[in-house]
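Researcher: Let's do a round of design. I'm pasting the C-alpha coordinates now; please hold your answer until I've finished.
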Protein backbone atom coordinates (compact mmCIF):
# COMPACT_ATOMS: atom_id res chain seq x y z
CA UNK A 1 0.00 0.00 0.00
CA UNK A 2 1.40 3.41 -0.92
CA UNK A 3 1.22 6.27 1.52
CA UNK A 4 -0.42 9.55 0.61
CA UNK A 5 1.67 12.66 0.18
CA UNK A 6 0.98 15.56 2.52
CA UNK A 7 2.17 19.12 2.64
CA UNK A 8 1.80 22.01 5.04
CA UNK A 9 1.86 25.77 4.86
CA UNK A 10 1.61 28.68 7.28
CA UNK A 11 -0.50 31.80 7.30
CA UNK A 12 1.65 34.37 9.10
CA UNK A 13 0.11 37.80 9.74
CA UNK A 14 2.12 40.81 10.97
CA UNK A 15 0.99 43.56 13.35
CA UNK A 16 -0.33 45.58 10.41
CA UNK A 17 -2.54 42.61 9.44
CA UNK A 18 -0.54 41.85 6.28
CA UNK A 19 0.11 38.27 5.14
CA UNK A 20 3.59 36.84 4.57
CA UNK A 21 4.15 35.38 1.10
CA UNK A 22 7.18 33.84 -0.61
CA UNK A 23 8.12 33.94 -4.30
CA UNK A 24 9.39 30.61 -5.64
CA UNK A 25 12.38 30.19 -7.95
CA UNK A 26 10.66 27.40 -9.89
CA UNK A 27 7.40 26.64 -11.66
CA UNK A 28 5.30 29.70 -12.37
CA UNK A 29 7.45 31.91 -10.08
CA UNK A 30 4.28 32.58 -8.13
CA UNK A 31 3.80 34.07 -4.68
CA UNK A 32 2.54 31.58 -2.12
CA UNK A 33 2.39 30.76 1.57
CA UNK A 34 5.62 29.41 3.05
CA UNK A 35 5.38 25.63 3.14
CA UNK A 36 6.07 22.42 1.30
CA UNK A 37 5.96 18.64 1.21
CA UNK A 38 6.29 16.53 4.35
CA UNK A 39 9.33 14.34 4.85
CA UNK A 40 8.98 10.68 5.84
CA UNK A 41 7.15 10.21 9.17
CA UNK A 42 6.72 13.98 9.66
CA UNK A 43 3.42 15.42 10.88
CA UNK A 44 1.75 18.33 9.13
CA UNK A 45 2.65 20.62 12.05
CA UNK A 46 6.30 19.52 11.94
CA UNK A 47 6.33 20.13 8.18
CA UNK A 48 5.01 23.69 8.56
CA UNK A 49 7.64 24.47 11.22
CA UNK A 50 10.53 22.96 9.22
CA UNK A 51 9.50 24.62 5.96
CA UNK A 52 9.30 28.08 7.58
CA UNK A 53 12.82 27.64 8.96
CA UNK A 54 14.18 26.34 5.64
CA UNK A 55 12.43 28.86 3.37
CA UNK A 56 12.42 32.09 5.37
CA UNK A 57 14.80 31.44 8.28
CA UNK A 58 12.31 31.86 11.13
CA UNK A 59 11.07 29.63 13.90
CA UNK A 60 7.30 29.55 14.14
CA UNK A 61 4.57 28.29 16.45
CA UNK A 62 1.57 26.77 14.72
CA UNK A 63 -1.90 27.20 16.15
CA UNK A 64 -5.25 26.39 14.60
CA UNK A 65 -5.68 24.71 11.26
CA UNK A 66 -7.47 26.88 8.71
CA UNK A 67 -8.08 24.24 6.07
CA UNK A 68 -7.09 21.05 4.33
CA UNK A 69 -6.85 21.26 0.56
CA UNK A 70 -6.54 18.46 -1.97
CA UNK A 71 -4.29 18.69 -5.04
CA UNK A 72 -5.37 15.99 -7.51
CA UNK A 73 -2.33 16.62 -9.73
CA UNK A 74 -0.06 15.15 -7.04
CA UNK A 75 -2.73 13.20 -5.07
CA UNK A 76 -1.65 15.31 -2.09
CA UNK A 77 -3.40 16.90 0.88
CA UNK A 78 -2.13 20.32 2.04
CA UNK A 79 -2.71 21.39 5.64
CA UNK A 80 -2.72 25.15 6.29
CA UNK A 81 -2.17 26.57 9.78
CA UNK A 82 -2.36 29.98 11.39
CA UNK A 83 1.17 30.48 12.67
CA UNK A 84 3.26 33.14 14.33
CA UNK A 85 6.95 33.91 14.26
CA UNK A 86 8.69 33.22 17.56
CA UNK A 87 10.43 36.24 19.06
CA UNK A 88 11.45 39.13 16.84
CA UNK A 89 12.93 37.12 13.97
CA UNK A 90 12.62 38.73 10.53
CA UNK A 91 11.74 36.55 7.54
CA UNK A 92 14.33 36.50 4.78
CA UNK A 93 14.83 34.10 1.84
CA UNK A 94 16.87 31.21 3.25
CA UNK A 95 16.69 28.66 0.45
CA UNK A 96 17.52 28.60 -3.27
CA UNK A 97 13.80 27.82 -3.73
CA UNK A 98 12.82 31.29 -2.49
CA UNK A 99 13.61 34.44 -4.49
CA UNK A 100 11.79 36.94 -2.26
CA UNK A 101 9.49 37.14 0.73
CA UNK A 102 7.38 39.95 2.06
CA UNK A 103 4.19 41.03 3.76
CA UNK A 104 1.23 42.02 1.60
CA UNK A 105 -2.15 43.60 2.25
CA UNK A 106 -4.64 40.75 2.47
CA UNK A 107 -6.91 42.52 -0.06
CA UNK A 108 -4.22 42.70 -2.77
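Researcher: That's everything. Go ahead.
Model: Designed sequence:
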Amino acid sequence: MSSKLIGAASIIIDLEERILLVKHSYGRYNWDLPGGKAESNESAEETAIREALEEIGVRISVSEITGIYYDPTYDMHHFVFLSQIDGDMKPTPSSPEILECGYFNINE
